[in-house]
Prior knowledge:
Number of helices: 12
Bound molecules: guanosine-5'-diphosphate, 6-O-phosphoryl inosine monophosphate, magnesium ion
Number of strands: 20
Structural class: alpha/beta
Shape: globular
CATH topology of the largest domain: Adenylosuccinate Synthetase, Chain A, domain 3
Amino acid sequence: MPALVLLGAQWGDEGKGKATDLLGGSVDYVVRYQGGNNAGHTVVVGDQKYALHLLPSGILSPGCTPVIGNGVVVDPSVLLSELSGLNERGVDTSKLLISGNAHIITPYNVTVDKVTERFLGKRKIGTTGRGIGPTYADKINRVGIRVQDLYDESILTQKVEAALDAKNQMLTKLYNRRAIAVEQVVGELLGYADKLAPYVSDTVLVLNQALEQDKVVLFEGGQGTLLDIDHGTYPFVTSSNPTAGGACTGAGVGPTKISRVIGILKAYTTRVGAGPFPTELFDEDGEALRRIGGERGVTTGRDRRCGWFDAVIARYATRVNGLTDFFLTKLDVLTGWEQIPVCVAYEIDGKRVEELPYSQTDFHHAKPVYEMLPGWSEDISKAKSFSDLPKNAQAYVKALEEMSGAPISAIGVGPGRTETIEINSFL
Ligand code: GDP
Ligand code: IMO
Ligand code: MG
């Protein structure tokens, strides 16, 4: 049982943090492979609640080595404050490994994220404003700054100069902003070098050696399938690949090593930021899902848009990720509805469509076709096995499983570590 990938099957915030933490006790390494501190992963252990942004959720399991892979973009100030926050709460973070090839979110990347969003006006993406897109753009443009550059002042200076050359023209001439000084950026970045040094390593070598020794490695995705730059609702996406293939490129591990791909799937749907969302609700049901599900962003504090479960999206996630299992979360939130609508297909320009249309224009016009499933009113938060669930809740899970194309191997019935029904073991 070597490598597993755990990723979001919808638009993020499916409960990846909780699921990773649950497995963290039984795995040797937990690896973030893409994204950055745009992620907000909540983990509840006993009466303690942790909000993680950049660190893999395995950091809360003492036996587990947390790894930030080469595909992640790292804001050093956020990372250091996340580490010190955890240390203050008694969490040992000394095992953390950071890839020297990971790219750094520089202060100018954050500035560019904010000004470009402002200038997009009505057409904005609704980014988290954390500099994610501009940092990946620099990476692809080959003017990015990597963690290893912090240890060569002359190279770092040359690279920051190269990156700022064009950006300062843009900031001053197009966006009417002040130019950013090279020395100021270099000085700030060098200030992080010694603090990060104990963690920086060749994570590709470490992970592949671990896999050769039959250690268990879990890859934890940020964001979700529909926010993927290639497979999501472009341009309303993030700038990386949360889908399963991203784990290979973002950590330097070959696809032959991955034996299990687990999609985290909320029992309804949420989305933060702009972009199409066929099952979005603008009524009391949407309000109720938001209230009962606590659907407020961990990173930006924005209210999440809420809607019913969308099986078309779940099927799509199964396909593009090669999912072997689903972990269905937040089933408890649906307690109390007499009937629960589930979107089984779309109607697009008068035609019934069973699969996610590749055309974004079509997707923007997609209207959900609902099937009504009977609800339940019993409290399910104490359920420990599938048979503890009321019959209608069992039927809801079975219906979702059938529509979504992969077995539901675990069910979340509350935010806590223990509030989970395990059906098939992941390990
Ligand atoms: P992530 O970004 O995928 O890690 O998800 P978030 O942490 O942003 O959002 C998921 C929220 O749902 C968090 O507040 C979790 O504590 C909570 N949560 C996770 N699983 C369950 C569950 O099964 N039931 C309930 N009620 N809450 C859950
Ligand atoms: P986790 O890991 C939900 C959304 C933003 C925006 C779009 C692009 O907690 O599931 P970005 O700052 O990445 O350039 O923003 O992606 N977004 C998320 N939505 N959960 C997340 O992470 C997200 N990370 C980014 O709201 O619409
Ligand atoms: Mg989140």
